[in-house]
Every structure is written in structure tokens, then in C-alpha cells.
Protein: Putative exodeoxyribonuclease 8 PDDEXK-like domain-containing protein
Amino acid sequence: MTETDPFRRPDLLRLPYDDYRALPAIANSDLSRLRDALNGRYQKPASMAGALGLGTAFHTALLEPALYEPGLPGINDTLIWWMVEGVQLNPEIKQLLATGVPEPSCIFTEPTIGTVCKLRADLVVPETDRGYTIIDFKTTNARDYDHFLWQCSGYDYDRQAAFYLDALRADRFLLVGVQKVEPFKLFTVEVSRTMLGEGRAKYLRLLHLLKPQAGVPAYLSEAVRDITEGLNGE
Structure:
């Protein structure tokens, strides 16, 4: 990047999760809710109260182990730590975990549409031999690498990758699938330019629907209203 390039990466903020959620900006999870509305399966955002999910427990154990609470209802602690060990057995991922910033948040303005957005990455490693790197861990039931690669598109992980990579002007985005059953294999996907292009098209289409002047059909209005009211603190 040259000195004349006006782009400045947004600051990486270390925020408690509740503070991040309260930021008045569009998150990738909001785009997923809008996608669900397009597919006829929209549900209002659920309360954060209740049983902790396996994915959340795993992320805490891997990225912020000091915050992990054992013995919570519905969580198999042994399974969680087996999965963590499976990740740490990979030399490259272990090194990234040792040098990266876990769970950083940022707020930014998406330049194409001008929407204020936010993200919370699993892991950011600003300096690697491959450049500025973002890593996202996904728990998965994928049987093999090809199955997980299909999930990256089917579950819109490509959209998340493009949304994050564009915001931080990163050099690469790694998706790491972690099997939830033995042998707890890892499936590491370096998101390609083709995948990023597809993901970028997805997030821009959804952001267009959230513009104040956008005319949306009735079946999307509830989802759009819920998301925009959240931005206004209502």
C-alpha cells in the first residue's frame, strides 16, 4: 500500500461481546437474517439467554481459554477440549494462534454503499509471511475437505470472508473447519478470489436492501425493520 493510498484500516477494538452487539452498525449476522427473510424462513433474533451453544463454547476455549466456564448445561467439556487439541496439533494454526489477536472487533463504513458496519473476527494476525491474515473457525459435521468446501458456499462463509477481508484490506482469509466428531480433523480453506467475488456480490446485494431509500417487498419489511430499529437503539 502506498503512502498516497487514502485507505486506513479500522482500529481493532478489544470489546466485551455485549458491547460489540450494542454498536449501532450492520453485522454479518444481520445480513444472514435478511438472507433468511429472502428465503422465507425469517425469525426474530433470539435472546442470548439460555444454553450456551457448542460453537460458542469451542470458540471461547480455543481463543479465550481464561474465560471458559466448565460444567455448563448442555456442554460436553471433554468434547470441547478434544476439539481444541485437534486444532493445536496443526503447526501452522498453532503459530497463528500464538501470534494473533483473538476476538477483535471493529466498526467501519462500507465504501460502495456507505453503510456503517461492524465485525468481530475470530483471529487476526496482521504480520505473517503471507501478509495480513484473518482466520475464522467453524465447527462442522463435514465428512471430508470437499464436503466442508461445499459448506463454505452453502452456508455463506464466502460472504463473511469477503465482508471481513474488504473491511480490513486483508491479504488472505482462512476458514478452518473443525470436526465435531472423531477424529476431529481440520479442513483449512484459503478463500480464493472466485469465492471472494461471489461472497462480495452476496453482501452488497443485501446491504442495498437496507438502504433507507430502498423499496423492499412486504415479505422483507419485517426483517428490514427489525435490523434498522436495532441500529437506532430502539
Notes: Confidence is low (pLDDT under 50) at residues 47-51. The radius of gyration is 18 Å. The chain is about 45% helix and 15% strand. The chain has one domain: 17-231.
